[in-house]
Amino acid sequence: MKALRYYGARDIRHESMDDPKLEAPTDAIVKVTACSICGSDLHIYHGHGFSEDIGFCVGHEAVGEVVEVGRQVTRVKVGDKVMMPAAVGCGACRSCLSGVVNTCERNGSGCYGLSARLQGVQAEAFRVPAADMNAVPIPEGVSEEQALMMTDALATAWFGARNADIRPGSSVAVIGLGPIGLMTVESAFVMGAHVVYAIDPVAERRALAEAAGAVALHPDAAMERIKEDTHGRKLDCAVEVVGSDATVDFALRLVRARGTVSVIGVQQSRRFPFPMERAFAGGLTFRVGTCSVPEELPALFPLVRSGRLRPERYVSHNMKLSEGAEAYRLFEAREAGALKMVLRPD
Q1: Residue 331 has what pLDDT?
Q2: Closest by CA position to 111, among listed 43, 16, 65, 178
Q3: Fewest Cβ atoms nearer than 10 Å: which of 162, 183, 211, 299?
Q4: pTM of this prediction exceeds 0.85
Q5: How many angstroms separate the CA atoms of 319 and 12, rounded?
Q6: d(CA 83, CA 154)
Q7: CA distance 39 to 16
Q8: b/e burial code for range 253-278 (CB count within 10 A of at least 16 → b)
Q9: Containing H/E element for 284?
Q10: Helix H segments across the chain?
Q11: What share of residues in the chain are helix, strand, coil (percent, to 5)?
């Protein structure tokens, strides 16, 4: 089969690799109909990945059709249209059964496309471990693109907003307006925020946030404007979607006493100089971590079906899998309005 394989910094190649095979009776094989590039894939693309492996298939967001199942798979069958949450679990322990795969009690948690240990999904097909849990049938009324956005991006946005303690009447900042940041803006409004300040240096992305109802600000102007609007009180909540020390610190400075900061930007810094004295004096709540997609899906399915959340609007490109290297280049450079890059096998 053909797949996108990682060989080093900015070296993604569309080439052949072995077809996936069942490795356990609980596995399934899925033929990909669409996959997408996530902002966290850029860490691998930049050569700062999560393993020393090379030649592995990248990507962790995909939808497709089940083409083979192991003898112990009972929940999905050949022919089912499914979506694959980015991270997997064993599917049998208490944590996984409650939807929290990143605390799997059997050490079965993992993410597609970080190494050769679990090959990625930017391919013509891939193996799904513990398929009864990790392959989720696409509900009626949810489109393929909507399901694809829920495999990671929308679920992470919702998780980040939920971790920010957004309530009806809250004032919120969202820092970073890539696809997940823009979906966080929408999520904040659905949760009842009365005002959302959307902060990003890219004018086109600010315009999209403004169209969604946010007050869109350049980072250089954000602090002064927010202080002016709140008479110095600042905001109830902030969601950081970038993953840099500077933007985390900025989020901490934007919230009021007893405010909440939620960090969902993938962190590459080994040490962050957390302002403990300021946080202690202000009684701040600080949450950081990764989303477990299955935990968020029960809330997201009805919101997407009803049109309250419309993640598909942030799909900017539909390209062939063979154009994957160019899609990564465009996404990194933010060229041609690049937001969510969807790839389909040729």
Answers
A1: 96
A2: 43
A3: 211
A4: yes
A5: 15
A6: 13
A7: 25
A8: ebbbeebbbbbbbbbeeeeeeeeeee
A9: none
A10: 41-45, 94-97, 131-134, 144-150, 153-163, 179-190, 203-211, 219-229, 245-254, 276-282, 293-305, 324-333
A11: 35, 25, 40
Condensed to tens digits (0 to 9), the pLDDT of residues 100-130 reads 999 999 999 999 999 999 999 999 999 999 9
Answer whether 88's CB lies under 8 Å from 81's CB.
no
Give me the amino acid identity at 83: M
* 343 bridge partner residues: 35, 319
The full length of the chain comes to 346
Asked whether 242 and 265 are in contact (CB, 8 A), the reply is: yes
**Pair 182, 205: CB distance under 8 Å:** yes
Token pair of 192, please?
């009842």
Q: Does pLDDT of 268 surpass 80?
A: no
Count CA atoms closer than 13 A to 49's CA, side-chain side: 26
Matching residue, tokens 């659905």: 190
How many CB atoms within 10 Å of residue 102? Answer: 18
Residue written as tokens 């009180």? Answer: 233
Give the Cβ contact number of residue 18 at 10 Å: 8
Instruction: Label the pairing between strands 28-37 and 340-344.
Output: antiparallel
For residue 316, the model assigns a pLDDT of 97
Contact, 126 vs 30, CB < 8 A?
Answer: yes
Query: What's the order of all strands across the beta sheet hosting 235-240?
Result: 215-217, 195-199, 171-175, 235-240, 255-263, 285-288
